[in-house]
Give the backbone structure.
Amino acid sequence: MEMRRNGSDEPGVSAVYVHVCVGAETYALPVGDVQEVVPLGEPTPLPGAPRSLLGLMTVHGRVIAVFDLAAYLEAAGERSPKRVAVVSHGAARAGFAVDEVLGVGPLPTTAASDRPLLTAAGIGEDGRLIGVIDSVQLLASLA
């Protein structure tokens, strides 16, 4: 049996994810790539920065760039970001503004996704479609 990138070898079931709400949509980030979730506060804006870069903030003495996840995923619906998911992979580290953290748990994978930055789609316990974010690709897209 082939081992999935996320560490699960059980058919149809993924590893554990952090489930987040962005606008009217729900997404999942691999829990191993999410260092922590912190309040958004007011990031310090950077003059001339793209609209997707909300600014800089300090988390445990380290400065990180905070990006609007909805802008990267072209999420539908009204947004009200309140939290920052601090995502890292290797040396890359950034914060992504999300409206809400819904919880942490497994996600049955139902189909591969052809949308940029998404690796798959699954159905949550409440029947909602959840896009699984490719953290590595998301961080690489910032460079």
